[in-house]
Amino acid sequence: MDAMIAAASELLDYDQVIADFDPVLGLEVHVELGTVTKMFCGCPTAFGADPNTQVCPVCIGLPGSLPVANAKAIESAIRIGLALNCSIRPSSVFARKNYFYPDQPKNYQISQYDEPIAHDGYLEVLLPDGTPWRVEIERAHMEEDTGKSLHIGGSGRIHGASHSLLDYNRAGVPLVEIVTKPIVGAGVRAPEVARAYVTALRDLLKALDVSDVRMDQGSLRCDANVSLMRKDATEFGTRTETKNVNSLKSVEVAVRHEMRRQAAILEAGGEIIQETRHFHEEDGTTSAGRRKETAEDYRYFPEPDLPPVQPDPAWIDELGTTLPEMPWVRRTRIQEEWGVSDEVMRDLVNVGAIDLIIETVDAGAGAEAARGWWVSFLAQQANSRGVELSGLSITPGQVATIIGLVDEGKLTTKLGQQVATAVLDGEGEPEQIVADRGLEVVRDDSALQKAVDEALAANPDIAEKIRGGKVQAAGKIVGDVMKATRGQADPARVKELVLAACQ
Ligand code: ADP
Ligand code: MG
Ligand code: ZN
Q1: Closest to 27 (Cα-Cα) out of 183, 174, 202, 259
Q2: How confident is the model at residue 1 (pLDDT cuts 50, 70, 90)?
Q3: Which ligand is nearest to the CA of 61?
Q4: What does the alpha-carbon distance between residue 318 and residue 200 come to, in Å, rounded to a whole number?
Q5: Which of 36, 314, 376, 449 has fewest C-beta within 10 Å?
Q6: Across-strand partners of 97?
Q7: Is residue 390 exposed (0-12), middle (13-18) or buried (19+ Cβ within 10 Å)?
């Protein structure tokens, strides 16, 4: 027993996990639809309103209230199903999933069970090195979201809290849950397959414009099921389900952690318990949640207050024609337009730069300059500020403005970077920063001439060399002038002035 407890807190080396086991994954992604109103009532869905201001008898489950399904939500669910290459069920039913939880005011959740609206599809995913991977989709079904519990006092978790508050604004917001078939055979790549899948799904949902897919606001949430099979096993092992993994990186981290944790237990002769687990963002670990209910515990039965969903086949066909250009098709098209290699394109995708570059170009910048800014200077800034590229507080429009100022020769690249840094630090708009700080390139030759003369006078030996025909020696003088003008001179013009002075 002691050995088991010790093992439970240990992690097996990842290489050893892979040597001894095959991982099996199952990903459940909940996406909050961007409909204006809730799934079964007319309450607004806007994020961030005062608690319990967006509720009505239907979504807080008062007796006698009756739900009506939101047509726009059904439309979104069908479009998601079609985009995932699923079959759309001609008649699908809502079901009551019974369980008590304080943030679930009706004591049941309206979901779909054995007849989900979409089933049996797939999503083609590209791994970071460009390897394609097909993830099979089991189903996509409609359901409603729960409210939110806020635990007051202590760390924000229920343990150690003095009391809890409930906000039902989110109760009844439409969700589509997308569930994969077991993902087998990924081996060492299982964590990256998980991340690549959620990334591809997020991009697809964004292209469909059915959700704002903000993982940080919970509009896209991933539960990661992980189990291990010994190399010679013929049946899947017992899985755990790590809930609410709320960033793309965390999906990868959580899967990897679960693989190492489970392997340590199995190697020590222990057993995996089928349970939910909480993910801890701070250190990338998971901890035990509740023992997993089985389907029977939920006493599913068809929702008696709602008719089956029977979309007209003609409508489904019509929705099929509204699908946007799929992200992977768009990606190929953009790569051709930009004329970049597979490798460069992959890097652009991996750092999440594609949309930002396109928006920067749309705002008037050249494609090459836009690419350069996002993948070098701004990528470094994102890195040092510990955020994703899209999380930087500079807009593509502002980047385009700075690129424009550099193109016009009003700023050097270096000055442009200073302006960008100031924008990132919240100092305002680029033009304003240039004006406030007097950052424009010094165009005034007489001011430059003075700095050139001073630099030459301070370095007589170098001046002599230049006069003797050693043009390369001018570099040091140009550098000194740039320093003296705090980077505000145009280096090419300075060089001309230096050479002219040494004629
Ligand atoms: P639950 O209601 O328990 O969440 P679901 O059917 O909604 O179950 O989702 C379970 C997910 O786990 C699916 O993606 C499924 O493919 C996957 N899965 C099933 N068995 C295993 C297993 N042994 N190991 C890993 N994943 C599994
Ligand atoms: Mg589930
Ligand atoms: Zn309501």
Answers
A1: 183
A2: very low
A3: 3
A4: 24
A5: 314
A6: 109
A7: exposed
- Nearest-CA neighbor of 113 among 68, 182, 37, 179? 179
- How high is the pLDDT of residue 485? 83
- Model pLDDT for residues 131-157, shown as the tens digit of each residue: 899 999 999 999 999 999 999 988 888
Per this entry, what is the length of the chain? 503
Question: Both tokens of residue 469?
Answer: 């025909």
What is the rounded (10 degree) CA torsion for 140, 110, 303, 82? -20
Please give all residues whose beta carbon lies within 6 A of any atom in ligand 1, as ranges: 24-28, 138, 179-182, 225-227, 236, 239, 241
pTM to 2 decimal places: 0.79
Q: Determine the 3-state secondary structure of 202 from DSSP.
A: helix
Residue 72 lies in a domain: yes
Atom number of ligand 1 nearest to Cα 223: 4
Q: Which structural domain, as residue segments, surrounds residue 401?
A: 327-437
State in Å, rounded, how far the first CA of the chain is from the last one.
88
Query: Crossing angle for the helix pair 491-501 and 445-458, nearest 10 degrees?
Result: 60
Distances (CA, A) of 65 to 60, 62, 68, 89, 133: 9, 6, 10, 28, 46
How far is residue 364 CA from its own chain's centroid? 26
Number of domains in the chain: 3
Instruction: Let me know whether 457 and 431 are in one domain.
Output: no
d(CA 98, CA 389): 42
Q: Determine, yes or no, domain membership for 320.
A: no
Residue 103 lies in a domain: yes
Q: What's the pLDDT tens digit per position in 152-173? A: 988 888 888 999 999 999 999 9
CA–chain centroid gap for 306, Å, is: 35
34 shares its domain with 154 = yes
Cα–Cα distance for residue pair 186/226, rounded to 1 Å: 12
Distance CA 116, CA 469 (A): 81
Q: Is residue 321 part of a domain?
A: no
Q: Which residues surround ligand 3, an ion (CB under 5 A)?
A: 41, 43, 56, 58-59
Give distance in angstroms: CA of 27 to centre of ligand 1.
Answer: 7
**Rounded Cα–Cα distance for residues 9 and 288 (Å):** 11
Segment (H or E) for 435: helix 430-437
For 46-82, the DSSP string reads -TTPPTTSS--TTTTT-TT------HHHHHHHHHHHH
Domain match, 334 and 465 both: no
Write the CB contacts of 486 (distance below 8 Å, at least 6 apart in sequence): none
Residues 95/300, Cβ–Cβ less than 8 Å? yes
